[in-house]
Design a protein that fits this description.
The chain is mainly alpha-helical and 121 residues long. The chain contains 6 helices and no strands. α1 packs across α6 and α3 packs parallel to α5.
């Protein structure tokens, strides 16, 4: 039996697991697709419209990542969440800041989650 890490590596190399082996995932995607049609959408907060406190977080993200992710622009609607987002991201992405996973495993996890969410970037 393969570990989750081995399955992720296999998918990353382009050998996806057959959908019949993931019936729960297919149901979950169908439910998400149904729900997304009914859910309200918030606009992304842009640099020019951001209050000073949010702008400071965006500038920190630019220094850390070289860009402001759309997820951060969405979470900017709640400054209380935004306050902790970049430190959490730093721990998850950078070695030596407290994450127990090695860089390779973290990268594979990010790729897997992106693939499952059908991200285009």
């Amino acid at each position: 039996m393969r570990t989750a890490l081995e399955e992720t590596e296999r998918e990353v190399r382009g050998h996806s697991v057959a959908p019949r082996q993931q019936p729960g995932l297919i149901r979950a995607r169908a439910q998400i697709a149904f729900m997304s049609e009914e859910m309200a959408r918030l606009p992304l907060i842009q640099d020019g419209e951001a209050p000073e406190e949010i702008r400071a977080a965006f500038e920190a993200a630019n220094r850390f990542n070289g860009r402001v992710a759309n997820s951060m622009r969405m979470f900017a609607h709640s400054p209380a969440i935004l306050k902790y987002l970049l430190p959490l991201q730093a721990v998850l992405q950078k070695d030596g800041l407290g994450c127990k996973l090695d860089a390779r495993t973290r990268a594979l996890a990010m790729i897997k989650v992106s693939a499952l969410n059908e991200c285009r970037y």
